[in-house]
Specification:
globular; two-stranded parallel sheet; sulfotransferase activity; Sulfotransferase; 165 residues; 5% strand; mainly alpha
Length: 165
Amino acid sequence: HQQLHAKETRLSELKQTEIKAMLGSYTKVLFVRDPFHRLIATFLQGMGINPSFSSFVQEVLDSGTHNGSVAWKPLVSVCQPCLIQYDYVVMFGFLRQELGHLLRRAGLPAGSLLPELTDSQVQWTYRWLSEQMFSELSAQQKKQLSHFYHWDLAAFPFSSSFLSD
């Protein structure tokens, strides 16, 4: 696939046969995160221009799936998990455990390469933040967000997400 590596090429610019051949030669890893947690992180990083979380969420909803930022677009529209057969799906919140497994499968010494991750603290913090931020939203916004991320919630096991029905 030398001609494909010579310049930056988007998968959408390639033919299906080229995509299949290229992707078949890679180990494909998809990192996924609860869509509501992604919204919170994006808001806290200041990527929204609105002062409140509720108005930021409205900005996201108004942008739709085609015009929105990659930071908050549904994962299924960005990563194409139905088109691309990923070898591994790594869930945020279980990074230490899953990255260790992934490194061992690749034949690498997992312990020395992993940063110190405190998954349980991250999960607790996001649970608390989710409760606070979710309470700021109107019933209509909650319903619209669940619909906006419907395919992400169906494709990945985010069973404890605030957006799950």
